[in-house]
Design goal:
7 copies of one chain form a homoheptamer. By secondary structure, chain A is mainly β. Helix content of chain A is 0%, strand content 47%. Chain A is globular.
Chain lengths: 95, 95, 95, 95, 95, 95, 95
């Protein structure tokens, strides 16, 4: 069972912050601010969206920086994901 | 008697959360948050919507994740439905 | 004397809820929530509306589900009507 | 001295409600809600308005139902008028 | 020294209300509501404004009724003027 | 070191009010309301801005009346400037 | 590891104000207002953005004045950056 986004939408899995403070204390998810990085897990087909032809440049597995503005949270199969339009992705992280 | 949506609109029947808590207690609909999953029950013909030609990609029976933003609740023949534009459907759930 | 709507507008006559409670009590219009169903009583000619060519698909006598958003209430010849653009009609009820 | 509206604008003279209550009492203008009916007194030439070509379908003397939304009140030569775009006219009253 | 408006803008000089009350008292500018009439004192060249070709139909000396919405007040050479787009002029007063 | 604006933007240097009150007192900049006049100090190249081709009609040294709406204040090289789109310039002052 | 912006977006590294007060006191970053100057560190490919073809005129290393409006703050690899559309860059600083 998997998600197939419509149009120019992409599904992201947000990365958890894995930080250790200087004193060695592991921060709980409550006290950490989630970073704006995520992994692309599904990409829509693009094509005509409104009156604009959108070509998808993202692909599954891309590590991206996204804008919280426009991100919609969904829960699917017990997991949390973000769905947004490709245009709300700010940048791809390249090695 | 059935609903025939106009333009790029679709009619959805929202799925009820069927969860059992660890203690075996069945949650009533009052205490459960409705999931954003629904079954498509009717699909508009698409075509020109405003100044955009919309091709419908959804079909009856599709299981979809939708955005609450843009969903309009209606009551028809004693049942509750959601009506929204195809563009407010985030993703189709594929097996 | 009748109403001839402009452009892509339609005139609707809202259906009154005719419900009887289980105890047989007839609900007064005060205590009933008006359903979102209406009968189309007049249809505009369509054509160019803004920069979009609109083809009217509704016709007099159609039973429709409408969105309260965008509905304008008018009083004409002692009767209450709703005027809205065809695009604010969600679906036609088919037998 | 008369008003010549620009573009797709029309000038309306609102109809006063002339009602007599059942007891024969003439309602003063203070206690009556003005109806949304008006007589068209001047019609703009239409043509390009923004990037849209507007064809005027209203003519002087037409009795119309208008939307309060978009209506601008002006006072000219001691009389009150309404100016609005043709698109804010909901319907023409036909005999 | 004079003002040369850009694009589809026009410069107006608002007419002062010259009223005498029934008792013969001249109203001061404080107590009078300024009418929405003005004289056109400068007209922009029109042409492409955004993605629309605007043809100027107003000319210097035209007496117009304007919408307060969109009117910008400026002070130039000790005098107060209004600047607005031609589209915010409601009507020209013809003799 | 100078500023080179992008697209249809222009850089303005606002004129200081140089007024003497009737009693001969020079007003400090605190108590004076800055006039909406400025000198154009840099002009962008124009060209495609969004989906519109913009031709720049302003040039360095032009004295202009501008709309506060849309004006962005910047500090550069110790001096304050305003940056705005050409369309937010209301008029050029001609001798 | 580096950032590759999408569409017409650019990544900026904001310049820190390096000021010494007259008394010789070095201002801490808390008490200083950050200037609106930044260095471009990454530039998107441009191309079709919405229904507009955007040509990128900025390049890495450009020193720019930007509008806070539209700037999105991100943290990447322990450093703070700003991401915005090329259109939110006001001007390039030329030597």
């Amino acid at each position: 069972m998997k998600l197939s986004p419509l149009g120019d939408k992409v599904v992201l899995k947000q990365l958890e912050a894995e930080e250790t403070t200087k004193s060695g204390l592991i921060l709980t998810s409550q006290s950490k601010e989630k970073p704006q990085e995520a992994i692309v897990v599904a990409v829509g087909p693009g094509g005509m969206v409104g009156d604009t032809k959108v070509e998808m440049v993202l692909k599954e597995g891309d590590r991206v920086i996204f804008s919280r503005y426009g991100a919609m949270e969904i829960k699917f199969d017990g997991e949390e994901y973000l769905v947004m339009r490709q245009n709300d992705i700010l940048a791809v992280v390249k090695d």
